[in-house]
Amino acid sequence: MVPTVEWKDGAVRLLDQSRLPEKVEFLDCRDYQTVARAIRELRVRGAPAIGVTAAMGVALGAQSLTATSYDEFARGVTAICEHLAATRPTAVNLFWAIERMKRTLAGLRAQPVVEIKRRLLDESQRILDEDIAMNRALGRHGAALVRDGQTILTHCNAGALATAGYGTALGVVRAAWEQGKRIRVLADETRPVLQGARLTVWELMQDQIPVTLITDSMAGALMKSGLIHLCLVGADRIAANGDVANKIGTYSVAVLAKAHGLPFYVAAPHSTIDLATASGNQIPIEQRKPQEVTSLCGGPPIAPLGADVLNPAFDVTPAEFVTAIITERGVFKPHEIADQFGS
Ligand code: MRU
Fold first, then answer.
1. Which of 136, 159, 177 marks a domain boundary?
2. What is the pLDDT of the chain when averaged over all its residues?
3. Do residues 81 and 202 both lie within one domain?
4. What is the spatial distance between Cα 76 and Cα 71, in angstroms, rounded to a whole number?
């Protein structure tokens, strides 16, 4: 897989996901404002990927600061952090990564600015490397839940594209495939932005893992027909009680899975777990522009001009609908998450 995000020649290089699957294009961000815009415009998306990108954005912004004293430099970095944190509200990985960069900065007060700049860049690279390692680990844990010959329904894109590499839900798929299990993925198209159709199908086809595209509304009938054996999705934020925020439409899949007696698994690294948020009711849900609903990926209108539109980008699946959460530390029931990940 081509890298979703990387530090390249003094810039943050992003695979521009808004152009996929038509074009594989890269966007070289040479200032942190461009990084922030790329996150807001979904050129890079997926909870872990935006966390990694924001960390690199902080490091990038820090390089261009001219301050020579720690206090002045720290004020500059704090402003960059605030700018990047204001891009998208739901995925907690964004705030987790920014906080980690702030902690790194705070621990370097005694160092010269030139050294702090270098260490911030190192830390952002560490966040990226750790993300891939966590995905590989959770992939191995999750693969044990997938049997040879099974068909997996997924929603949105929780793949290599949504992370620094390998993927969460699709990390489990990759690990099962690498173990030689003959599996197949059904990808919900994922209206309105079509991350399933554009991204999940693309990345699985790149790896020659069998994938079949369906529209979101087909999931229930296909579950009833016995075609689907389990559901596997990623997460943008997991609250302390095990409620899961993920792409809009995930809740419907979970309810359908329960109605058909199918397991519904969520795969996520610890950077997605937010123990400071008690339950899903407190997770902020991003509302996006109506144009995402009134046309398909910027194409001609599919609704009357001036139509009233709702466009929440995420929903919350209550813990009772989640069979288990697959993490890099193992597979847990939703109510076990707080104990497992509490410090
Ligand atoms: O709006 P997006 O494309 O950023 O939403 C992404 C999702 O909802 C993913 O399922 C989630 O971030 C998990 S990615 C490993």
1. 136
2. 98
3. no
4. 9
- Ligand 1 center–CA 29 separation, angstroms: 21
Expressed in percent and rounded to 5, the helix, strand and coil fractions of the chain are 45, 15, 40
Q: What phi, psi does 277 have (nearest 5°)?
A: -105, 115
Q: What is the pLDDT of residues 146-184, one digit of tens each?
A: 999 999 999 999 999 999 999 999 999 999 999 999 999
End-of-domain residue from the set 92, 120, 136: 136
195-228 burial string, b = 16+ CB within 10 Å, else e?
bbbbbbbbbbeeeebebebbebeebbebbeeebb
> Across residues 305-316, what is the average pLDDT?
97
If pLDDT is split at 50, 70 and 90, which confidence band does 91 have?
very high
Predicted local distance difference test score (pLDDT) of residue 2: 86
CA gap 215, 41 in Å, rounded? 24
Catalytic site includes residue 122: no
Catalytic residue among 236, 243, 274, 315: 236
Distance CA 248, CA 246 (A): 6
Q: How many domains does the chain have?
A: 2
For residue 29 and ligand 1, the question of a CB distance below 6 A is answered with no
Residue-number span of the structural domain to which 333 is assigned: 142-341
| Three-state SS annotation for 39-76 | HHCCCCCCHHHHHHHHHHHHHHHHHCCCCCCHHHHHHH
Beta bridge partner(s), residue 265: 232, 324
**What CATH number did the domain enclosing 286 receive?**
3.40.50.10470
Q: What is the pTM of this model?
A: 0.97
In this structure, the answer to whether residues 165 and 182 fall within a common structural domain is yes
Q: Atom 15, ligand 1: which residue's CA is nearest?
A: 158
- How far are the Cα atoms of 101, 143, 318 from residue 82, in angstroms, in the given order? 12, 38, 30
| Same-domain pairing of 128 and 156 | no
For residue 72 the two structure tokens come to 């002045």
Question: Does one domain contain both 274 and 165?
Answer: yes
Say whether both 284 and 186 belong to one domain. yes
